[in-house]
Amino acid sequence: MRGLMQDVPLTIDTIFRHAEQHHGDVAIVTDGPAGRTRSTYAEWAQRTRRLGGVFDTLGISADGRIGTFGWNSQRHLELYFAGPCSGRVVHTLNIRLFPEQLTYIANHAEDEVVFVDRTVLPLLWPLIDTMTTIRHVVVMDDGGDNEVPDDPRVLDYETLLADAAPVDFHVTDEGSAAYMCYTSGTTGNPKGVVYSHRSTYLHTMGVISPNAFGLGVRDAAMPVVPMFHANAWGIAHAGPAAGAAMVMPGSMMQPKALADLIVEEGVTFTAGVPTIWQGVLPHLAGRPHKLREIGCGGSAVPKALSEAYREQVGLPILQAWGMTETHPVASSGVLSRAFDDADDATKAAQRARAGIPFLGVEARIVDADTLEEQPWDDKATGELQVRGPWCAAAYYNPDAGVELLTSDGWMKTGDVAAMAPDGNIRIADRTKDLIKSGGEWISSVDLENAIMSHPAVKEAAVVGIPHPKWDERPLACVVLKPGETATEQDILDHLAPLVAKWWMPDAVEFIDEVPKTSVGKFSKKDLRTRFAEYSRD
Amino acid sequence: MRGLMQDVPLTIDTIFRHAEQHHGDVAIVTDGPAGRTRSTYAEWAQRTRRLGGVFDTLGISADGRIGTFGWNSQRHLELYFAGPCSGRVVHTLNIRLFPEQLTYIANHAEDEVVFVDRTVLPLLWPLIDTMTTIRHVVVMDDGGDNEVPDDPRVLDYETLLADAAPVDFHVTDEGSAAYMCYTSGTTGNPKGVVYSHRSTYLHTMGVISPNAFGLGVRDAAMPVVPMFHANAWGIAHAGPAAGAAMVMPGSMMQPKALADLIVEEGVTFTAGVPTIWQGVLPHLAGRPHKLREIGCGGSAVPKALSEAYREQVGLPILQAWGMTETHPVASSGVLSRAFDDADDATKAAQRARAGIPFLGVEARIVDADTLEEQPWDDKATGELQVRGPWCAAAYYNPDAGVELLTSDGWMKTGDVAAMAPDGNIRIADRTKDLIKSGGEWISSVDLENAIMSHPAVKEAAVVGIPHPKWDERPLACVVLKPGETATEQDILDHLAPLVAKWWMPDAVEFIDEVPKTSVGKFSKKDLRTRFAEYSRD
Ligand SMILES: Nc1ncnc2c1ncn2[C@@H]1O[C@H](COP(=O)(O)OP(=O)(O)OP(=O)(O)O)[C@@H](O)[C@H]1O
Ligand SMILES: Nc1ncnc2c1ncn2[C@@H]1O[C@H](COP(=O)(O)OP(=O)(O)OP(=O)(O)O)[C@@H](O)[C@H]1O
Ligand SMILES: [Mg+2]
Ligand SMILES: [Mg+2]
């Protein structure tokens, strides 16, 4: 028997019209070098419709890729909607990628145009001739005095908009592409993920729900997490969908500027990676604010950070887990009523976990080779695998041999996790970073955390190095704090009471700096290359 | 270009597994004549899987209709999920319908079995031989001492469950039918609406969101609105989906019992029709509670009621609008940040409206004949029409001539409304109840409200009666409070300063009672029949 409901597709133009029709008076604030710009969803909607006209003027193909290279701003939000609502595909270029990665992804996605903030134009312009499919460079003047090249390819956003006619939006196929996002490139080349209208719509509803970010007409949402990577964790869609005011930091990403925005604009919800909140803490501590939730993820959220916020700002941090391939938010750690009477330490420990998969994401942990499911006893670990309408099915034109799904249709995350009996996830490590010693696994992340609790240590990264008998053994690469000293033996003595004997690193190497990826994650593949031939001399 | 996301259907078994896997410890409490029963989603899930087995035992067809005839209870929640998750279609029979309507809908839906609460068995059993497709009557013993007939068709729920094997749930087609709900029959025969898995899933996510009921793991939700009509406004799905505890009143629908449940079970969210909250108010006023939201709809929510709750219970009532054909919730009136500084009167006036359509529902007001769109100026009225993935496309085997959609694909609600510039809906009347006088419309609802503000009036219903010159003219049917007196002239004098002159009723008839539909709405079609030949004598 068939349902007799309307066959209305889940498309992004529905979200657009919802904001346009019902939240026209709600504010969009964008910060910038020249101060804050104030607008409303009504103005934004009008401009977005005209931006659709600009794409026609520029001759962008019916499903052409539109590159963006900019900060979180109203204009970026115009692009986010005008693109998919007019049938095009928005490809957000991560401004922090290495030049060769930028060229790689722009060509791989076949971007026809790139919209670039003036403040970051110098990062892009030198590469423009290597980006072979880009025909137009549209500059969005977000302040500053970077020179705009005198080149026929270069156009001005506001001029184009002023000349364009507004267009109607009507997407009919919810399975069509809406966005391309590339992964961070931590473990190899960035991989292209193609979000559909349907997946974006459903992820938006997931992100809005109270077990995630809980956004509604009472909120002012500030995405610190960039729109140029993993779609600002869905907040750029959730805001318009929920009728929440949007507070956009633009290029003003300094910790003090962010804290000022939170306080002065009455921000109720914000989200970003741990290092951001580390920096903002001293600027926010003790000030009056309206925050009700601070979302955080992208890498493990240190318990100490969340507790420092609870003590100094008045609310702990909400941890979420996800990846570009999951749109990106897939789980979060909102504490249930069961914790109402728990003590602070218990709550803090719970908040240090990656949380429970959202409705719409099913998760399992398995032996990566046999796909045998592992028990949810918080001890057994396995590769975390997910399934659901906002999880990716495949990469866009992947490198040979890259397979995203298992033979039984689950998505491989490349993360290793344990799950509590209620399915609350504890991320242990990345598959590629685990160290295989004598047939058993050692978590590099656990070793790093233990080493970083030594007072003289600034950073530590642990990688597996080849070993004739044990296959691999851990090597600790340690950066000391300026002015501090410590010997290998000091580090090992510190570690001994904290980890199992067979986990103890074979050696400690003192290095100047842990190599980082473009987005600031530890680049262990670089360390592994550097120490591939390691032998104690 | 296609999106590259997983093709995972939006089905109700996903919600089921989410609750089973991640919220197993969360409580389900059911009240009853013999006291409260306590359970958890884990137990519920196990029993629900076994209930799937029972359907096989009973030989229910692959997409057979499963009738239910019962209160809000854990067992009803088992039926709600075991049905669609095993491919069947749950048909909730409204226990308050008139006998002939019950027979009509059970036969119209072709129910193969009916699950009935023992406390309401006497309402159903006398009709059972008129329900020609029902082969089994499964009695759920919810207390009381109603005799259970000794008849081969009659089976016991718990016995069947104990003997059944749990089944796996895997629905693959999101467009397949999940539920059948019939309308209240206010304006004619009840009409059958068939919800799909997809529409149920999306409505659930809509209802969870903060602009609606905002349900999450911090909540205990009590649906007072019955599961036997319009799917308990989605709360029976939202609870498991959100990991909210469920508090089920069972047959204990007396105002005092409801107030006790709210207080003693720490209910944070509840919802029901205005008459329910009218009754509960004195029993709740002044008591400590954890309520954060009281949802209300189904008919207009009097401003005075909401204000009385604000003053005596500490929170106003949240109005929602919808109909069986919209699953049923389509709009709600959560006040945005823009009202933060408004005074109480402004807020109360805003809360008296039907609110803003949810993301997922698009609304318009049109001239019902020409489909010409009316402006959103809060003055112009027109038929309210809606569109979206959880709005119905057609009735199930409708009577000849009943058309749900307009020629351009919007759903006719049969309600007349004005819309404010932000699309906030003000319901004026039902199309069928409007009075057409000299080519202009008179709102029966507005006249009734004005008459009911007379201190001697208990109830008033206004209907149009044929008029040779003006086409129709209003007739006021008035019920006086016991012991009170008033003349026609008294009523007209009271009315004169409140409404336009040409709205003044031609006559006032004093009647003993306003005829009601099965579910307690004014039955104006009965009044129109009674006064069809009306002439002043
Ligand atoms: N709460 C969290 N705790 C621990 N790790 C997290 C958390 N959230 C995200 N991560 C890590 O971030 C990864 C997702 O990052 P992203 O999609 O930006 O690219 P990447 O995996 O770093 O790069 P690439 O896939 O190109 O190697 C996850 O797979 C996980 O390893
Ligand atoms: N907040 C509200 N304010 C005013 N009226 C409301 C509100 N919510 C619901 N209603 C009324 O209830 C109707 C939906 O009721 P329901 O689907 O239960 O059946 P019905 O319309 O009464 O019966 P039938 O369609 O069989 O004549 C709406 O069309 C509207 O007239
Ligand atoms: Mg990755
Ligand atoms: Mg109706």
From TrEMBL, chains A, B:
Enzyme Commission numbers on file: 6.2.1.-
Keyword annotations: Fatty acid metabolism, Ligase, Lipid metabolism
Transmembrane segments: none
Keyword Glycosyltransferase: no
Alphabetical list of CDD domains matching this protein: ttLC_FACS_AlkK_like
Any one biological process term the GO annotation gives: fatty acid metabolic process
Segments forming domain AMP-binding enzyme C-terminal: 447-521
Pfam family, one: AMP-binding
Family: Belongs to the ATP-dependent AMP-binding enzyme family.
Protein name (database record): Acyl-CoA synthetase (AMP-forming)/AMP-acid ligase II
